[in-house]
Amino acid sequence: MNLRRLQYFLAVVDAGTVTAAAERIHIAQPALSRQIKTLENELKLRLFEAQGNKLALTPAGSAFIPAARRLMLETQGLEAAADALRTGRVSTLVAAATAASVRGFLAPYIATTRPEDPLIITQETSHFAIAEALLHGCDFAVSPAPPEPGLATMALGSIPLTAYVAADHEWALAGITELPLSVLSVQHAILPSHQSVSRYILDDALNQAHLSFRQVSECDDGQTIMALAAAGHGIGVTTDLPAYGTHPIRILAGTDARPGPALRLPLHTAWIPGHFAEDTIRSVARRIRDFLNQQGAVIIEEKATENA
């Protein structure tokens, strides 16, 4: 089977029509049609069928798409491995992370890298699809979800859940740096939705203390949460680094009478053992951990661990 024909097949799938695909990949439409027909003959599968003046995927064609994408990603990985072996350096790494992690600290970390460092491309995914992302082309992942067994991992520390208030808020003016949930719960809270692991951690602490917020607004973008807090619309709870002049307050479990530990989100890096760039991934993970520590963004109670 010719890999170029797989690329052509996926180009038609992504473009929607043979004509649009031919324009996108700069090939004549009749030639592209012949390549698709040859691929069908090689696979002994009918991938497309005519529907009026258009081609539509057959059920077999639709089912074949994930396998084709996986094979193309694996081919790209082989090319990257060969390039690293040939040049002695890893030029590019793809990192899977949630949108909150990308905006909150991964992109800020990337901004501190040098031209001679690996180019880090981020791919946004959910907390619960990290292992799948590693199987589908990502070199490593950063996630608050516990890594699945069998993956190589490195703990980065724990990011505290932080309540942000406007610079002119009474707590900011008083220089308060931490408060228990019982004090925060009487406020209007701007929180991430239940799609976020941090929201589960917060809700669990509220339930254990038999508390609830007086009023809740939901938003899944940490920057917007802080912007709303900066404008005085309420207290914004996120794991993002401070922005817009907001004042950060660490959230303690429990009540004013019996405050508990700071609420926190554990972070891990994970990758498939034996990855061709494993040494480079470890180095990058350590640098991310150091960056978070320098920013005062993590709580490290004991020496971070690595598990191969």
Quick structural summary:
This protein is an alpha/beta fold and 308 residues long. 42% of the residues lie in helices and 24% in strands.
Order of H and E elements: HHHEEHEHEHEEEHEHEHEHEEEEHE
Question: pLDDT below 50 for ≥5 consecutive residues: which ranges?
Answer: none
Mean pLDDT score, rounded? 86
What's the architecture of the largest domain, going by CATH? 3-Layer(aba) Sandwich
What is the CATH superfamily of the largest domain? Periplasmic binding protein-like II
Strand content: 15-25%
Largest sheet: 7 strands, mixed
CATH topology-level name of the largest domain: D-Maltodextrin-Binding Protein, domain 2
Report helical residue fraction: 40-55%
Features of this protein?
single chain, 308 residues, alpha/beta, Arc Repressor Mutant, subunit A, D-Maltodextrin-Binding Protein, domain 2, 3 domains, seven-stranded mixed beta sheet, six-stranded mixed beta sheet, 15 strands, 42% helix, 24% strand, elongated, WH_DNA-bd_sf, transcription cis-regulatory region binding, WH-like_DNA-bd_sf
